[in-house]
Amino acid sequence: MTAMLRAPKQRGVALLVVLWGCTLAAITLGALASSAKVEGTQARGQYLQTKAFYAAQGGVEQAAFRLRAQQAGQRWAADSRLYRLRQGDIDVTVAVADEDGKLNLNKASAEQMDALLRAAGVASDQVRRLRDAIVRWGSAGARFSDILLAKGGFASLEELRRVPGVPGDVVDRIEPGLTLWSTSGPNMAHAPAIVVAAMTGAGQEAAEAYVADVRAMDLEHGGLPRTPGNAEAMPSSVPTSGTVTIDSTATTSDGIAVRIRATVTLQNEPGDPRSYRVLRWQESGAEVGTLR
Q1: Would you give per-residue pLDDT tens digits along the chain (292 residues)?
Q2: Which alpha helices (H) appear in the chain, and where do they start and end?
Q3: Which of 99, 107, 228, 274 is the most exposed place for a label (fewest CB within 10 A)?
Q4: Domain residue ranges in the chain
């Protein structure tokens, strides 16, 4: 009798154990499936990032080739006008800016730096202090606390952010008008609006309108628009100096974007297989709408 009563209880415990085992197995399988889905999503994201990177790099290569094209109809301008390419299912936008349209950070005079800061909207009572800090930092033998700049001059544009007392937002505003690789100028045919405003005394609106007119001109037949402001003798020349910044952004159909900003010197030496030599290379990747 006792054995007969014990059998149902044992079967009940066994059933409970089986149910718990099934539940744990289901939880484990669910976790594995979720992990596999996450890994699959990550793998796809990495694949798309890699695909977009090579498309953006292709934009850089295309720009280097187009800048040296013999026919005007195939040659690209170096005035930051936008060119659009399609590589498979990826959209690529490319802009080329000649470095001769910017102020050389190591060669700019105090007056030029003053004008650039004013064109960037820096308050008048702050201009002189910021200008002097930047000019002193770039001078040979200048000393700040325990830092001796024996080399003299800026070694990189990023170094501008180390200058004591110069806010990051000011650097963000003036950096588009600065370079380390121009030998003369600035060339108004390639200058960004902030440099046009600084060098000519024109207002921001007039400077932007001038830049828009330059980008709209016909490279083969169109003449340069009249320089705004009060500096009619500013140098203007369409041919590239050979040192440019190529800004290439590739965007996939899934909204993944990769941006490459490369400052390069075009190669023209006989027998050299390279089309350019890299001076500065920056990469960034994000979803569309978050790239700056």
Answers
A1: 444 445 565 666 666 676 677 777 777 776 666 666 666 666 766 888 889 999 999 999 999 999 988 887 888 999 999 999 998 899 999 999 999 999 999 888 899 999 999 999 999 999 999 999 998 886 654 444 334 333 447 889 999 999 999 999 999 999 999 999 988 779 999 999 999 999 999 999 999 999 999 999 887 666 788 888 766 556 677 788 889 999 999 999 888 999 999 999 997 666 666 788 999 999 987 554 444 4
A2: 2-67, 110-119, 124-137, 168-174, 193-200, 204-216
A3: 274
A4: 56-100+239-287, 105-177+192-216
- pTM for the full model? 0.78
Phi, psi values for residue 156, rounded to 5° = -155, 160
Distances (CA, A) of 123 to 48, 127, 164, 192: 44, 6, 18, 21
HEC assignment per residue over 90-126: EEEEEEEEEHHHCEECCCCCHHHHHHHHHHCCCCHHH
Short-list 246, 265, 257, CA closest to 60: 246
- Cα–Cα distances in angstroms (integers) from residue 208 to residues 71, 122, 196, 226, 274, in the given order: 29, 18, 8, 13, 35
Within 8 A by CB and 6+ apart from 103, the residues are 112, 113, 116, 177, 178, 179, 182, 185, 186, 195, 198
SS3 80: strand
